[in-house]
Hints:
Shape: elongated
Strand order of the largest sheet: 2-1-3
Number of helices: 7
Strand content: 5-15%
Largest sheet: 3 strands, antiparallel
Structural class: mainly alpha
CATH superfamily of the domain at 93-153: Zinc/RING finger domain, C3HC4 (zinc finger)
Radius of gyration: 32 Å
Amino acid sequence: FVSRSSQIKREKPEDIPDLKCLVKEKFTALENSNSDSDLQRNEKYMYFKDQLKQMRQQYNDNEAIEQIDEDIAVTQSQMNFICPITQMEMKRPVRNKVCGHSYEEDAILKIIQSRKQQKKKVRCPKIGCSHVDVKGSDLVPDEALKRAIDSQNKQ
Length: 155
């Protein structure tokens, strides 16, 4: 043991192998041995390519794509029917005149009431909204939204 440590001390620092250099060499060698032909043989890669091909064939007719766009539009508008507080479809939506977001009337009024007792401001419950002072006086019935929800539910 003693002789080994004295041997290391005697060795010049440039004799110690450059690890960075060795790793780079190994990595480059490995990289070069990985070829596209390996990918062609990879089961998961082949499966993925097949899936893409099938999807392309399915949606080549534009009607399918238009149908998807329509479905997305409908789903997005239905999303707007959901109260950000209750996560339920709104029955009596009110719109905030300041930031334009809508909530279930009872739910937002309850929050305003409880925060008022704590002498705290109410932040708009819509995710991503920066409005931090929601007041009862800013809320107006959202008639258009109510009509949209009602007509959706009649269908």
